[in-house]
């Protein structure tokens, strides 16, 4: 009976999966902001790129002007949706893939595997950190766009509703894919070399830095397989005039396809992250 009571007390005193996951969000977020490399390459990178594009190409005039020279949007306004989408990808995929690979390499995951922390609690902490930092990044990027670069933001509530669901789906999807991708690098030292080219190529072929329909058809089709293209397209539907939808691959914003593609990739990322995640590499 004494053993039963002890077991019961132990079970009651063990923190739950959700509680452990939530408790790690603050810890993971603090670690994120203490890393200069992470801050530069994931948090500040969209700000830098938006400033470069706005400064470098502002003298060329508005993009998408009418034949009579009226209309269109500024260069900064045109690139803002892509930078928001890139920020989501960087916060989730690049940040987590490199971070988790490093933790696996330096023994952090091995030590965590010997604690009551479950993989689900660990995932919750990482995804929560991505959400916190991605929200801060997007909010600051919009403030910079509005008050520093004088970019007009949408006033319609439905536009912001679209922004909300694209953002939520995009961040969660990116986080799961980052966890899954962390299994690829052989060590923490090689993680950046493995992950960064993948993320960079996706940005160039997905309409972040280049007009999507200006790319060859085969490249557009390849980009359409991956979630960043749909995240960028969803963000363009929020921040660009409806007339710009004609420049999309199908001639419309295709928000139903945006939602479907992100849902599919979210499920794929969830499955891959759970199947591939190990506290210790099998070949270690």
Summarize the structure.
By secondary structure, the chain is mainly α. It has helices at residues 2-13, 17-33, 36-43, 45-57, 75-105, 108-113, 119-147, 157-181, 188-205, 217-223, 227-239, 255-276.
- How much of the sequence lies in strands comes to under 5%
* Residues in helix, %: over 70%
Cα-atom radius of gyration: 21 Å
- Structural shape: elongated
List keywords for this structure.
single chain, 284 residues, mainly alpha, 71% helix, 0% strand
Any overview of this molecule?
- The chain is mainly α and 284 residues long.
- The protein has one domain.
- Helix content is 71%, strand content 0%.
- The chain has twelve helices and no strands.
- Helix 5 runs parallel beside helix 8.
- The longest helix has 31 residues.
- It is elongated and about 70 Å long.
- The N terminus is likely disordered.
Write the topology of this structure.
Elements: H1 2-13, H2 17-33, H3 36-43, H4 45-57, H5 75-105, H6 108-113, H7 119-147, H8 157-181, H9 188-205, H10 217-223, H11 227-239, H12 255-276
Helix pairs in contact: 2-7, 3-5, 4-5, 5-7, 5-8, 5-9, 5-11, 7-8, 8-11, 8-12, 11-12
